[in-house]
Amino acid sequence: METDKNPVLFLTGVLLLLIQDISFLLTVFLNPGIPPRDMSIHSEAYINKLIRSHLYCNICKVVYREGQEQTEHCPDCGFCIEGLDHHCPWSSKCIGSGNMTAFKFFLGSTVILMIYLFTGGMLVVAAS
Ligand SMILES: [Zn+2]
Ligand SMILES: [Zn+2]
Fold first, then answer.
1. Is residue 75 pLDDT above 60, yes or no?
2. Mean of all residue pLDDT scores within the chain
């Protein structure tokens, strides 16, 4: 089998690589979920809200929004991130609610691309 001259196999590889690269770039450049700052920071209602709840970051000066219990401060980024999963050292970015879908696409396409490359390599070795 001439695997090195099969256009379908070649285009499949290019497509997988494009999906992986684009999803990685989206993971890096999308807002991971930095919450908006509360503009009523000096109001009495704001201070009462701080006293009642512990959903507040003293560094970012933000009150976490309702239903955003997973909001945490990332010491690497220096920001609070809604739906924080982890800080990814490979993309140098937090993975949160804003870029989780792109991150999952990146992981999935990387695994599929690795399988594709390994299988293709084995076919080339077997054909030679
Ligand atoms: Zn914070
Ligand atoms: Zn981070």
1. yes
2. 85
Residues 110-115 have a mean pLDDT of: 96
| pLDDT for res 108 | 96
How many whole angstroms from 22 Cα to the centroid of ligand 1? 29
Ligand nearest to the CA of 79: 1
Catalytic residue among 57, 80, 88, 94: 88
- Which ligand has the nearest atom to the CA of 85? 2
Amino acid making up residue 21: D
Q: What is the pLDDT of residue 123?
A: 87
The Cα 16–Cα 2 span in angstroms is: 21
| Residue 80 contacts residue 62 (beta carbons within 8 Å) | yes
Task: Let me know if 88 is a catalytic residue.
Answer: yes
Task: Give the pair of three-digit tokens for residue 42.
Answer: 């000096």
CA dist., res. 81 & res. 75, Å (int): 11
CA–CA distance, 52 with 40 (Å, rounded to integer): 16
Which SS3 state, helix, strand or coil, does residue 76 take?
A: coil
Yes or no: say if 31 and 98 are a contact pair by the CB < 8 Å rule.
Answer: yes
